[in-house]
Amino acid sequence: MAGTRAEQRAATRAALLAEGRRRFAADGYHAVVLADVAAAVGVTKGAAYHHFASKAGLFRAVVADVQHELGERVAGAADRHDDPWERLRAGCRAFLAAGSDPVVRRIVLVDAPAVLGWDEWRAMDEDSSARHLAEALGDLVEAGVIDDQPVEPLARLLSGAMNEAALWLARSQAPAPDALARTEEALDRLLAGLRSRTDRPS
């Protein structure tokens, strides 16, 4: 019975997360009512509060899940390449492209910074996609593709630039059809400036 109860609790939590994710992505944080989320999955409001304490708690858990998936998407794009430089480019491009995903756009890029606050949002970002960026830059410094330098400030500068670009793309009500392509071109020019002069293509 204990195992069954644990499984039921896990299933309830997963159902609340899935429904919360769907509603936060479709309607935005402020339009979602926790009691409605609970009713939609057939549990009481008390059960929802038991698992997440508040609507903000549910939202925080949803953001963490989406951030984790985004980090996996970035890592997966990078892992399709053997060359360290192409790994960096592919990961950065995957992060920018994720802004076109309605779930990522509304939950992670638009609502999360406002609801959770910049510091918490940045900390969650660092635990997901930003961590992969720092690792990629560290590999490039070690390989001599980027001149020897402290990786952390470089990673923060590049992460900040990409977050700003992703936020701009996400918040644009009607971005130009080639907005992502032009942003990727700008990113390539920015990245090219990081390469050691001895490693730049002739």
UniProtKB/TrEMBL annotation:
It comes from the Bacteria. Residues 33-52 bind DNA. PROSITE patterns: HTH_TETR_2. Pfam families: TetR_C_41, TetR_N. PANTHER family: HTH-TYPE TRANSCRIPTIONAL REGULATOR BETI, HTH-TYPE TRANSCRIPTIONAL REGULATOR RUTR. Residues 10-70 form the HTH tetR-type domain. This is TetR/AcrR family transcriptional regulator. Keywords: DNA-binding, Transcription, Transcription regulation. Gene3D superfamilies: Tetracycline Repressor, domain 2. It comes from Nocardiopsis endophytica. InterPro entries: Homeodomain-like_sf, HTH-type_TetR-like_transc_reg, HTH_TetR, Rv0078-like_C, Tet_transcr_reg_TetR-rel_C_sf.
